[in-house]
# Entry
Amino acid sequence: MKSLFVSRTFLALLTGLLLVVLSTASCAEVLKIVVNDAIHPITDEYIGRAIAEAERNKDQALLIEINTPGGLLDSTRDIIEKILAARVPVIIYVTPSGSRAASAGFFILESADVAAMAPGTNTGAAHPVSLGGGKIDDVMKEKIENDSAALLRSVVSKRGRNVEIAETAVRQSKSFTDQEALSQKLIDYVAPSEDDLFKQLQGKPVKRFDGQTITLNLVGDRVRLFDMTLKQRILAYLLDPNVAFILLAVGALALYAEFNHPGAVVPGTVGVVFILLAIFALNLLPTRFAAIVLIFAAFILFALEAKFATHGVLAIGGIATLTIGALLLVDGPIPEMQVHLLTALAVSIPLGIITVFLMSIALKARANKVVTGVQGLIGEIGLAQSALSPQGKVFVHGELWDAISSANLPAGQPVVVRQVDGLQLAVDPAPFSGEALVPAEKITIFLVATCLAVSRLLAPAPAQAAEKVLYRFNGKDGENPMAGLIFDDSGNLYGTAPGGGAFDQGAVFELMPGANGTWTYKLLYSFNGTDGRGPYAGLVFDEAGNLYGTTVEAGTSQHEFGNVFELMPGANGKWTEKVLFNFDKTDGAQPYGDLVLDAAGNLYGTASAGCGRGHGCVFELSPNANGKWTEKILLEFNGSNGALPMSGLIFDSAGNLYGTTFEGGVLFDGCGDGCGTVFELTPNTDGTWTETMLFDFQPTGTARNPQGGVILDAAGNVYGTTYGPSIGGDVFELTPDNGGQWTEKVLYQVGGYPTAGLLFDATQDHLYGTTGTDSGDVFELTRGANGDWSEKILKAFKYEGASGSDPASPLIFDQEGNLYGTTMYGGDKPSCPADEPQGCGVVYELTP
# Structure
């Protein structure tokens, strides 16, 4: 019984041992890698890792499928050393059909324990090439050939292959097909597939480099693919000379962009990363440093082309230098390890053009006068927002400044900044929009002005409309009204005064007509500073009878850039103010233009400053269910598409918005910061708006710098006013053609500076407007039968006159055809504060 137990135990152990042996045999593996690239350091690292992996797992063999045009000799030597020292058999298999193991690949093929090729492959052409392909002297050529031949002989002889034939691949650059290589004993097998190769190897003895003979039994063994790591794949891609050159060139351009726009961050980061990657790749490749010098020389030529007018000679030289530098950059022994001509041209030509363009812009920008800080204000053109006698306020760069003038000037007069003293500007009159005039031009303009003045004095006074002063401001009830008026359904007038009131911060007023022709004034609201200061714009009614408007400043430290307010009437006749939105400069500042209301109750307006680049914007305010209002920037001005929008907007019947900018557009020298634009905003279905610049005013034309808004006629033509380049201003018309292009026509050159927009009568054959120079006037333009327009002065105001002076507001009609407007100065001077010696302004009516 005991004997039976022992025999059964022995049988179980024997069975277990047999199962272990069979399972070990069945788990035998062949490790496989694929080399389909030029031979370089990453290939060397990849093959070295594969050999170490096969040794660690005690694989039956390492199969290297290869397809290579050749590569670097140093990397080839390192690979051969690893193959010869490998503790596992290494099989080199040139596959698939059409592949090759040329140049360095031939050396690697011959170093293998087993060398095999697929049908339709070739090998050989292992003659050493001087780096870069240049010619070498005979002595050096012989040395390189002998060294390479000796390496090959030492490997081939140990493998039992044909040394003499192998050496011809080095000395005579011979190549061999798969059958030629087999018949001349350069390889061991020709196999159409991996499985066929293993069948041919089955049970065959293989002599290793150390003299040991082994037998390979690989049929049925699992083949395990061993891939490159992510790092190796990336580095192998970077070691393509074309990629390295592109990284170097694009990185240099990105760094240049960062140097010219400090703080952009993204170009600098991209440039540093690209250049570091290029340096890493070039460090592993045979690089000519003289070629790098050529590349930097090319950028110097691009910079010189931007600075000096050589009509493209230096730019072409730079492109040629950059192309040559690219071609010589990597000193590769084979074409696959050199920068291709197509790559060099595809990078050099666009890069040269872009670099010259960017450098020319940068050089021009640096040559321009300073536009920031104190120095940036000197020489700038601004507007007198109040009379300068000699002190007052001016509007420069979207900001209100205290100023002192070298001469007494009325409001609306252009001024030029001469000096900055702390927070006060010293200004001079700039009647010619800031243009520098030579003496001859000054004499001409003086003579023209003199002739106009004399003709006005000698000409009979034209019949003027009958004026009636409805109200004279005294400061406590408001002062210096500049905005237009509006009617309610009962015929009452409503308006704003940017100064005065109970707190001297501005006011909103109402004028009510009486039965005897008199008008009763009512102060609806006085701003106290914290709720707004300086309501320069007019008002707009909603259907519920609430009023909406803007102020250009506010007293709180967080919101000192103006606001949008609502005034709501109460049952007791009092009006309550609600601030709907406070500007913080990033979303707008100093809204001087009137608001407009759409059918959905949304408000639209302009901010003359702030909004990103500080050039102003167009905004929309929408009411929410909780009573709050949300702002949306519809258009941000960047200078080239306009800057400093001073006027309000107007809707057409299709829901498009139209407006003007006082500056911006193409930055012509004659206009400093641009001559201004007329723009259109079209709503899109996704809620965005598209800007179309209808017209960009130029210094060569008579019209420029529109401060007032525009109006539309029934045909869709646009009308507005501008400052002129010399004396007075212009009334212009913009007419669209079928292609969407707009043509400007100056209808009439008026005698003063028109700061407000125009008004059509019912026939649209008469235009009405105001000018603010030399105390100002109200004019009428009448369209003639031939399309020409003639002017008639309806009212010429007198300086500091009791009936008003300096009308800066647009006009409105009542139902009887009477005109209504405001003047900044004049009126009841004795009742005005001491700081308003010219009077506080009036509200007037003109009856034709």
About this structure: DSSP finds 16 helices and 44 strands in the chain. Residues 341-367 form the longest helix (27 residues). The longest strand covers residues 742-750. The radius of gyration is 44 Å.
